[in-house]
Specification:
Blueprint: E1 12-16, H1 21-32, E2 36-41, H2 44-51, E3 59-63, H3 69-83, E4 88-91, H4 102-108, H5 116-144, E5 147-152, H6 180-199, E6 204-211, H7 220-228, H8 242-249, E7 260-263
Parallel strand pairs: 1-2, 1-4, 2-3, 4-5, 5-6, 6-7
Helix pairs in contact: 1-8, 3-5, 5-6
Length: about 270
């Protein structure tokens, strides 16, 4: 008997936040595995430009806002009109904190001073947006009796931030890792468990992918601080999550649901 396939030929997958660092790599990995991929994000022109990287038949750029159900419903209708099916959803879209000025960041990122408006915005995108995208696109899969949802969380959905890695060698601190990202990513992990249990009998598998820190032009001191915390001694590369995404979306993980696949270089191992 041959092992389950990692191939996604003839299947249709959606990647939300497709213009992000990891979103682009998720899309590339899914296309390479044979899927037709819907590139979802807010910026229509950016999506069109990104789509030129692929064969015209391999991708469909669709601009939508995951925090607005009407936008998601319109995207759903367009996707079904084009492909007639939906087999996988990668809930990748999320936001991290952005402060108005570098000077204010160190103070405003402290828990004691952290603005509730920023906390609410993270909930709106990272949790409610994921809920809505799962509801709209996942319902299509549940009605078809098959599908896979991959919710992208983080190691900070399992453990608290180590604030020491955000301190420069001279002892100054540019910012604290604020509460919104860990809180919302923790919610993603448990929402995955809920949805896996709820849709198990509908043939829809739901799993979490929890990446560790990804190198993306950070200051060398931060990269060094982070690397010391991992058994592999480095940060991740953006293309190192693609195999995990393909695994979770494909039949290779056919008996896996409600799980959290951690790809973090060992960050959470000690």
């Amino acid at each position: 008997m041959s092992p389950p396939s990692f191939r996604l030929d003839d299947r249709v997958a959606i990647v939300t936040g497709a213009l992000g660092l990891l979103g682009r790599e998720h899309a590339r990995a899914l296309v390479a595995a044979g899927a037709r991929v819907v590139l979802g994000d807010l910026d229509e022109s950016g999506l069109t430009a990104f789509a030129r990287e692929f064969d015209r038949e391999a991708v469909l750029p669709v601009a939508f806002d995951i925090t607005k159900k009407d936008s998601l419903l319109a995207a759903r209708d367009r996707i079904l009109h084009r492909f007639g099916r939906l087999d996988a959803l990668v809930n990748n879209a999320a936001i991290n904190d952005k402060f108005e000025s570098p000077e204010a960041t160190a103070e405003l990122s402290k828990f004691e001073n952290y603005p509730v408006e920023l906390f609410q915005r993270s909930i709106d995108v990272n949790v409610t947006g994921l809920f809505l995208a799962s509801q709209v696109f996942g319902t299509v899969m549940a009605k078809a009796g098959r599908g896979s949802i991959v919710n992208v969380a983080s190691t900070y959905g399992m453990v608290g931030p180590d604030q020491s890695i955000y301190v420069r060698p001279d002892g100054t601190r540019p910012f604290y890792k604020s509460p919104a990202y860990p809180a919302t990513k923790g919610a993603v992990v448990n929402f995955t468990r809920f949805l896996a249990a709820y849709w198990g009998d509908a043939g829809v598998r739901v799993n979490t992918l929890s990446p560790g820190g990804i190198e993306n032009g950070q200051e060398p001191w931060f990269v060094e601080n982070y690397a010391r915390k991992t058994p592999l001694g480095r940060m991740g590369k953006s293309d190192e999550m693609g195999g995990a995404v393909v695994f979770l979306a494909s039949d290779a993980s056919s008996y896996m649901t409600g799980a959290n696949l951690v790809v973090d270089g060992g960050w959470t191992a000690w």
